[in-house]
Backbone:
């Protein structure tokens, strides 16, 4: 089946729901590939007329903000014992070393750790629960959470969507080979965004 024909069979509502759910669960503190799901969905939207990139970006942003907020509430209630339990259940992601690294970032950068953490996989998982455990004032957390979620989700959707538009002729000509190439380009774009976010984070810390 041609890629375009296959994409036409994907229900738009299902795509929106999956993106919002996966990103929300990842933001809540469950190790899931939220960024990969968002990149893939944004590529779908560039090739699938029924998937609106604005709605997709809004669903991704909502999932990020709501998930982080729930994670914050859980972290605030569970405290450090929660981190210990998560460490036993997900040792690869919630090891003592990872927690210590994330905690140092929060202590050093505060709100900026929540904002820029959205662009870094490790901090994206930790941001909500750890902010709650460290009892960051909720208004500060919410401000950084909303802004970071919108910039990350909206920016990722926009960049990958336009990458997909540019790659449309390749997708039609080379089918799955073109899709794989577009994914590689999309991931590369995300790496560039992450590097810029880290540079901005370093500049903010220097000030």
Residues:
């Amino acid at each position: 089946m041609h890629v375009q024909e296959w994409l036409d069979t994907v229900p738009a509502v299902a795509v929106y729901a999956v993106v919002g759910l996966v990103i929300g669960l990842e933001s809540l503190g469950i190790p899931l590939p939220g960024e990969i799901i968002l990149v893939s969905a944004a590529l779908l939207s560039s090739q699938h007329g029924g998937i609106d990139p604005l709605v997709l970006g809004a669903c991704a942003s909502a999932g990020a903000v709501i998930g982080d907020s729930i994670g914050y509430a859980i972290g605030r209630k569970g405290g450090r014992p929660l981190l210990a339990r998560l460490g036993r259940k997900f040792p690869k992601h919630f090891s003592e070393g990872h927690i210590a690294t994330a905690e140092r970032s929060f202590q050093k950068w505060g709100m900026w750790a929540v904002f820029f953490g959205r662009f870094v996989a490790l901090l994206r998982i930790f941001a909500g629960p750890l902010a709650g455990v460290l009892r960051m004032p909720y208004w500060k957390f919410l401000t950084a959470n909303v802004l970071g979620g919108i910039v990350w989700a909206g920016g990722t959707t926009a960049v990958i969507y336009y990458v997909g538009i540019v790659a449309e002729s390749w997708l039609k000509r080379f089918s799955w080979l073109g899709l794989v190439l577009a994914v590689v380009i999309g991931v590369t774009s995300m790496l560039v965004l992450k590097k810029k976010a880290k540079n901005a984070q370093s500049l903010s810390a220097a000030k």
About this structure: The chain has a mean pLDDT of 76. The chain is about 85% helix and 0% strand.
